[in-house]
Amino acid sequence: MVVGDFPIDLDTVVIGSGPGGYVAAVHAAELGQKVTVVEENAKLGGVCLRVGCIPSKALIQVSHDYQTALNSGSEGISSAKVDLDWSKVQGYRASVVQRMTNGVSYLFKKNKIDVLHGKAFLKDKNSLRVMHEDGAQTYTFKNLIIATGSHPIEIPGFKFNGRVIDSTGLLELKDQPKELVIIGGGYIGCELASAYANFGTHVTILEGTDAIMRNYEKDVVKIAQGNLEKRGVTIVTNAMAKSATDNGDNVTVTYTLDGKEQTLTVDDVCVAVGRKPNTKEIGLEQVGIQTDDRGLIKVDAQGRTNIDHIYAIGDIVAGAALAHKASYEGKVAAEAIAGQKSVVDYRAMPAVCYVDPEIATTGLTVAQAKDQGLDVKSAKFPFSANGRAVSMHSPDGFVRLVYTKDQEQVVGAQIVGADASDLISELTLAIESGATVEDIALTIHPHPSLSEAIMDDADVALGMPTNI
Ligand code: NAI
């Protein structure tokens, strides 16, 4: 929509419709604001819904289903005719994405949120320019929430093109690779290595440091790493990726290990070495919005930048680049604009890595708690002693509670095991509500369920374990 040189007056504007932006927009509308979202992509939902969390979880799910179908012989289910149709796998991924992005459109309509498709650029403290397909238009705003997200980092020698791909490319491959190299053994590298290994691809992870999944504790990683290796994933640590040569039919990856140059020729190479905030080319400097040395926008506890009525949330501010963190910050910013006193509190921030078995954490590890001066203890309960986990072929892993010595208040938890991504919410709520291990032990958990392992772990913490 372009009406010439006359600015169009808007109230609350949100740039970006990812899990930060769309949640902020909906919540702001629920709080009575007239909201407009500016989104440059034709589809709503941002990286998470279009080319991140949601499609990757769709692929991970199919890869599990495939493995289950292949390996159900011991349950009396014949696996003689299991077949993988890659184009249908991709079709399923696309259908899940479509459904979720349509969902955002529906939420916007329901909340009377207008969408402007185009790229936004800040002009001054009260207005921005949107480059629409048919020209540019200036809009004024009363309040602005910037939620522009992040993009994959490109490294020298690995220009994204053809068989050198980023995570988006890896999610959308037209042909299933027989051989795949993933550079970076972090979240994306390990999750997608796990999925592709389940599909039967031979995956090599080239990790620059001495360990994969370095965000997690060693005993947690050990279980997930052992399972990756069991499924044929080759993990090379201290591998410095140098370059990739696209040969048309395949790609040759050169890296150094212990000072020696090595090469691997594979079908595709994916670079997953982290993400960069989308804070360039949106005109922050026009307005004087302050950023730190990593390009992250500086904000206060309500998400407010150094300009009073301009907020920033999600991957463009400090902290983990997680969808649920962005959504949480979006709600706080919307409430701040509505005049509420809400502030962020990251004490119970969950994080999940969707490998096999899943890793999920919340709050503090023992080491982090000690760093903060807390006197803590921990208790561990293995899933091998949980009937539901054993019946699900998932005896690997454990629940660990971290709690204060004096009051036995839960301050952190780590779970590695089946459905850890769902189980962690109980412990996030425990931290959020100040629960003690006794509160958890006294809470009746359904039998048989994976969640019983949490109650059993609380019994371990109290020194009165029943099931171990
Ligand atoms: P990451 O930060 O998780 O991992 C990057 C890995 O690449 C690290 O292990 C790092 O040591 C390694 N690395 C860096 N430069 C390298 C080089 N030149 N050669 C070899 N290795 C190198 O980044 P990733 O996996 O790209 O994910 C980006 C972000 O997206 C994550 O930090 C996370 O916040 C988010 N994410 C979250 C997910 C979830 O919540 N389940 C899933 C996927 C991504």
Topology (SSEs and partners):
Elements: E1 8-9, E2 12-15, H1 21-30, E3 35-39, H2 46-51, H3 53-70, H4 86-110, E4 114-117, E5 119-124, E6 127-132, E7 135-140, E8 143-146, E9 150-152, E10 164-165, H5 167-171, E11 179-183, H6 187-199, E12 202-206, H7 218-230, E13 234-236, E14 239-246, E15 251-257, E16 260-266, E17 268-271, E18 275-277, H8 284-287, E19 310-312, H9 323-337, E20 351-353, E21 358-363, H10 366-371, E22 376-382, H11 387-391, E23 398-404, E24 410-417, H12 420-432, H13 437-441, H14 452-461
Parallel strand pairs: 1-7, 2-3, 2-8, 3-4, 8-19, 10-17, 11-12, 11-17, 12-13
Antiparallel strand pairs: 5-6, 6-7, 9-18, 14-15, 15-16, 20-21, 21-24, 22-23, 23-24
The structure holds 1,4-dihydronicotinamide adenine dinucleotide.
Number of strands: 24
Q: Spans of 5+ residues with little confidence (pLDDT < 50)? A: none
Classify the secondary structure makeup into a structural class: alpha/beta
What number is the mean pLDDT?
97
- Give the spatial strand order of the biggest sheet: 4-3-2-8-19
Distance between the termini: 66 Å
Number of distinct helices: 14
Biggest sheet features: 5 strands, parallel
Radius of gyration from the CA trace? 24 Å
Structure description:
With 468 residues, this protein is of the alpha/beta class. The chain has 14 helices and 24 strands. A 5-stranded parallel beta sheet has the order 4-3-2-8-19, with helices on one face. Strands 10-17-11-12-13 form a 5-stranded parallel beta sheet. A hairpin with a 2-residue loop joins strand 6 and strand 7. It is globular, with a radius of gyration of 24 Å. The N and C termini lie far apart (66 Å). The structure holds 1,4-dihydronicotinamide adenine dinucleotide. The site of 1,4-dihydronicotinamide adenine dinucleotide (NAI) has 25 residues, from helix 6 and strand 20. The site of 1,4-dihydronicotinamide adenine dinucleotide has 25 residues, from helix 6 and strand 20.
